[in-house]
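Think of the structure tokens as a kind of shorthand, similar to the way a musician reads notation: each symbol stands for something richer, in this case the local conformation of the backbone. In the example below we present two proteins back to back. Begin with the first one, reading the sequence and then the tokens, and try to describe in your own words what changes along the chain.
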Amino acid sequence: MTTFRDAAMQSKAWPFEEARALLKRYEKAPPEKGYVLFETGYGPSGLPHIGTFGEVLRTTMIRRAFEVISDIPTKLVCFSDDLDGMRKVPGNVPNQEELARHMHKPLTSVPDPFGTHDSFGDHNNAMLRRFLDTFGFEYEFYSAKEFYASGQFDDVLMRAAERYDDVMKVMLESLREERAATYSIFLPIHPETGRVLYVPMKHVDAKAGTVTFDDEDGKEWTLPVTGGNVKLQWKPDFGARWAALDVDFEMYGKEHATNTAIYDRICEILGGRKPNHFSYELFLDESGQKISKSSGNGISIDQWLTYASTESLSYFMYLKPKTAKRMHFDVIPKAVDEYHQQLRAYAGQDDAGRANNPVFHIHGHNVPASDMVVSFAMLLNLASVSGAEDKDTLWGFIKRYAPEASPESNPQMDQAAGFAVRYYNDFVKPTKVYRAPSEKERAAMSDLVAKLKTWGGGLDAEELQSMVFAVGKEHDFDPLRGWFTALYEVLLGASQGPRFGGFIALYGIEETIQLIESRLIAE
């Protein structure tokens, strides 16, 4: 008898493929540390954004898949590089002049411009943790400041001093001549100014574990590499962190992919075992440009959640992570409806089907049932023709179509109705363009009205669809797609639309007659 674990071992779903590859790391013996460690990194120079959500979510999906196929415990660490020097003052925070006085200091040494935390880094770390907690992620939080200062990193930092030349060789091979001339893997933190210094090392004492350098004013300093006195440049830090924590898996965006060999080699030089990694493609805005948190293009998490549920965003994140995807407002309706299609399918699937279904990777074994009796796309069309300003208007139609449905018994439906009204008013209504029907289309629509006036088949969506279909054939639309396109463009002011029989069943016979007649008169 097969089990869900058996199905998972054969599944082609990418989280299971990555989980199986990770399991091979320990096919001979379990990890000495007692668990498999997943890590995600975060640069706390700004607020968490949609890329942060995607990275933690996708890592969690692989972690969940691993827990299905293995009994080895797991842990997810979210690591904040809050010792990074502040290179520019963010444009969206208060007290900018005060912040400018602290340029190049670690973010955890910069005063919090919002006045709520001990430092700007602490403030952004708190925002990150609140963000992760809101979405229910299970993780442990690591701060670079605490990691460097507490001694947890000391062994690897001492090893970096001992093997300085080997690590430098890896880095210098990747740098241009001008940059290489002054490069050091160590960034001292100035004892007096507190600034992170990008200066060459005059001497690295492997035995003492110290570095000697001149500051920007030419004064010589010698500092221990331990105790938070220095930090590593970001590429060496990546590999050193893998070695220090014994990281087993980390994913990152395509922009890191060219550095993977550098991270891996530094990890190995410093005594670690390179982790499994996964490089995902980036999200694009409506123009095909990379989404950037600094430029603010594309769509933010808050914007998505203004028009659709968290689960629909998770579904979008699941799809083809190695393919670049446009992430703009127009992808939301499709994501919502496909998510609910997969929910409905899950209930009747066997283990193999469920292991391949995206909703398992979103919810684990606690997959909810869908209570969407009307699709999101149909709700948008309903909002369009009814001019809905609130979800109560839509519920008037929904309850006639599905009398057993209610906001209380169908909370997903109720939430979607509210989202649909908002989405319609913000995106659909401003762009609606109606056109006049041709003589052929006018005749067909008049015929459709006549048939609806004598219709005795009730609100059966399939029967109504067949009738609309027949009208198109009688009026020689070939292909028939032209008939339905005419209905959408003349009646809905859109180039695409729903199955029209289903629309009539939801909107109502009399209402549809009035809609068609009003458009024919208007033109």
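Once you have a description of the first chain, move to the second and do the same.
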Amino acid sequence: MRKYLYLLAATACITSLSACSEDDPEPTPDPVPSTELPEWYYTGGELGTSSLITTTAYEQPTPVAEGAEFYNSFKRGEQLFEKAFNSEPTGVRSGLGPLYIRTSCQHCHPGYGHGKSQPAGSFNTTDIGNGYLLVVYNPETNAYVSWLAGMPQTKAVAPFKAPLDETKINITWTEYTDLWGNTFPDGETYQLRYPTVTIPKDAIYVANRGYDVGNYEVRLESTIGIYGTGLLDAITDEDLKAQYAQEEADGYMKNGLNPAIFAGGEWVGQYANTAQGGDGTKYPFRYTYALSRGPLQDAAGANAFWNITNATRSDRRFHYLDAAGSYAEYASKDPEIQAGFPAYIAQFATPEEYPEWFTNDVEANIYNYLTSKNLPIEVSDEDYIDLMVWHRGLAVPAARNVDDEDVLRGKELFSEIGCAYCHRPSWTTGDDEIRDPARFFVGDKAAELPRYPNQKIWPYTDMVQHKLHMVNDIRTGWCRTTPLWGRGLHQRCTGAEYADRLHDCRARTTMEAIMWHGTSTESDAYETVAKFRELSKEDRDAIVKFLDSI
């Protein structure tokens, strides 16, 4: 049954004291529509939508997570996301390091949303808001380099040294002129820019100690908003496959589908986990720009809660290090690390528990510690479950301005010119069976997570990768269609200067994001952008207003 906005707004004020407090003023809500709300107002369906559109819009629990069964766990998980980990051997949120990327999840996800674009200059991960992750890869193979962890670490707990010296990493912004001279037929102009990031060899720890790092290139990818991921997880594998099969049959995309994932009506590549107790069961890819993860319970958030901080848990009792083992090898031979290691290890281990870390050979001790598969557990199962209740429990902000004539016109044009093909407006979730490739959330643990069965949701994504052929593009060029729901609230929720759209935040405005889709005739979206250019200014602005309202 549909509800009316005034009822939802009243509920929001009852359940969110901060939103209705006179001491915490918030932006004025949109006017109450005079008619019954359309179904696309409920972006996350009735079980996954929050009506709050204030600065905390991304932080709200779904109606399911707000219930008595999950709420306390949701709030504890929220604290784990927000509060910084530390390097203390015991106590609350201890266990940071020995190498790490950020001290908290919120550093990368300001206001629970998309990371902010960063100014030109050094790569500073200390401030909350820098959601950039470094993508270091071999340009000949497009594979991640093996001498850094997949998400490169720029911090270390003494006596260890950071794999990368982030003070030497540099971001530059370059202005770009597209095929149309950054000008619409009616004379209106726009600007485009893109980021470049460089890591000199003397910033690389193992290179400074003699390791041959070979050829490498670097790209930036920003974190994406966390809200609504539980709803995307509830889309069935069968419906995902049907979407791929339909797009393959249609043949509209000039670059086709990523052949490493789908071809001939069947999956070519799927996600599986055998490293953390998984049994190798295969699941369709559905998360990250690179489509590197399957179900949410073993996806980006579950992984990041371990590898960003390197805080161990029962299913991951080992350090997040490079695949080549280069850091463990060179750190164990470093005289300065050797000098400080005995005092470091004595803080949280004893010779009786771990004799292999307390021999007379300090080099072997360090190597054995860094490569151990049986490290002390630093994050309890209860904390991890709370974190995932929160992760699955974040609501999507409801659509705004749903009876505004310009928004309605923009919604119509969005479909007419072809945007809605890749940015598929809606999906209907299935029974939402909890699946975990790592086999942690099974049995009673699976029952402890929120679920969203049979909901019509409006994420505006086909969950498929496409190519835009932008200058300094994402690694491989294949990028999953980003969900658009809630993105219009980015600046309000994160305090960002710009709208920060696209995978590396190159687009400062929604208009810039649209035009980046058509900077190459080889782009899958080129023809759609060409149609957008021919619209009147009023119609172009209507599409932008629609995008900023969903």
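Compare your description with these statements about the second chain. The CA atoms of residues 116 and 219 lie 16 Å apart.
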